[in-house]
From TrEMBL:
TM region positions: 17-38
Name this protein carries in UniProt: Uncharacterized protein
Keywords in alphabetical order: Membrane, Transmembrane, Transmembrane helix
Superkingdom field: Eukaryota
Species, as recorded: Xylona heveae (strain CBS 132557 / TC161)
């Protein structure tokens, strides 16, 4: 005799849905935090790059850095 018959629903559908939405909420929160940290890193990197360019320009080395880049692709 076979005992693995029909569909057996989970004991607590509400708990399963709660876990699912909890996971989605945690992922949204982690994405938001990552975006904030990424943005802070980008601002810090841009400030360092600006300072580097200023120092190079003062030395007379980096005057070409502000010129538009020409494409070499044919």
């Amino acid at each position: 005799m076979s005992t693995g018959g029909g569909y057996v629903p989970p004991p607590s559908v509400g708990h399963e849905i709660g876990v699912m939405f909890g996971f989605l909420g945690a992922m949204a929160l982690s994405m938001g935090l990552y975006a904030v940290v990424w943005n802070m890193g980008q601002k810090r990197s841009a400030a360092k790059e600006l300072e580097r360019r200023k120092l190079l320009t003062e030395k007379g080395i980096g005057t070409h850095l502000d010129a538009p880049q020409m494409s070499t692709s044919a």
